[in-house]
Amino acid sequence: MGFLENVIPVLSLAKASVTSIGVPAVEPVINGVLELATMVSTMRSNKEDLAKLENCLNDLITLDASGCSEDLKNRLTALTSDLNSISLACKALVEKPRFNRFVMSRDYKDRIQEIKNSIGSCIRNFTFYGNISIEELIACMTVKVDEVLTKEILSNLKTVSARYNADNTPEVCMQGTRVNTITEIVTRLTGGPDESQRIIMLSGSAGSGKSTVAKTVASILA
């Protein structure tokens, strides 16, 4: 089916992304729709394939969408609503008396093609519901889930009082200490016409006095 050739790659990308979300209800939905699309695009006009199609439709129709986002739930609700009548049509064909003879008729081939076309249209509507592709929706969900997980991790981190730069950190260097360092910094910051060169980077291990030196220089230049 021609238009499913454009839909299946989008669903495949959504499936690849959904595995990282970790939301139990989402993955079965995407997998179910992709499985149905693949089956419709490859199925033959025989009783076995038609019975498999009916089972695939019923599995998708009965999926629980309670854990899905509102957008995904709306997509699935619209899809399953349309698929209900199609599933009944499949069931009627499978149970039709003298099925094997009927399979050979033109009427059967037309009806099975109509069913496939209807399913394909439903899947396309699901995939691009509201002019937003399912791939984009899953990508947005992934970002939101990552943000929630990050906030949760940060909220559970144990906090401790700062060992350095705490309330008792000296405001300025003691008299007679760091004289050469402070003089060199002040000279660098006040000398020369090029203001872009008046940049100082202090480096050193934690607790070595970088903040105190910076405060001292700031108090001198204030």
TrEMBL record:
One of its GO terms (biological process) is cell surface receptor signaling pathway. This is Uncharacterized protein. It comes from Mycena metata.
